[in-house]
Task: structure prediction
Amino acid sequence: MGKRITIIQGHPDGQTRHFGHALADEYAKGCQDGGHEVRRVEVAQLAFPLLRTKEEFEKGPPPDSIRQAQDAIRWANHLVILYPLWLGSMPALLKGFLEQVFRPGVAFAYQARGKMATQLFMGKSARVVVTMGMPACVYRWFYLAHSVKSLQRNILEFCGIRPTRATLIGGVESMNEEQYAGWLDEMRGLGDVGQ
Result:
């Protein structure tokens, strides 16, 4: 039986197609080949405000676009989050989206003082796909992939999503056609097996 997979395209540019969009498309094709169900969330196409207070985060009503994204995440048992590395981390729009979506009562529940939060997204897994201009080995070994690890540990795993895997794709501006095609094939293969 196939998985239920939600692909979250985190590139903030909603007007132009980028390499990350092609990667998401190929992953979705692989999912279809592998008999998985797929839903997609295009963060750049959603209208939502940034959260500015603890009160908004904990009790503010999410806009319809965020409720629909929350439903797509609840429905899935595997998430794929794609984004370009900007200033060493995810773009601000994607971070704002995650703050809206991963709220108390949806992704986790507060417990009595001193106790860990209840993880409401248990049973889900995730893959984070990050494109970047620098070589991926430099980001992984010199910068220690800090922002990807933060997303994995402090957001996804905190809410019960595990395992979380990462695919780091470096040197995107200098790729030749063979390298480009190789990464598209890689994504299609991951989609086929639902990873």
Summary: The longest strand covers residues 78-84. The mean pLDDT is 94.
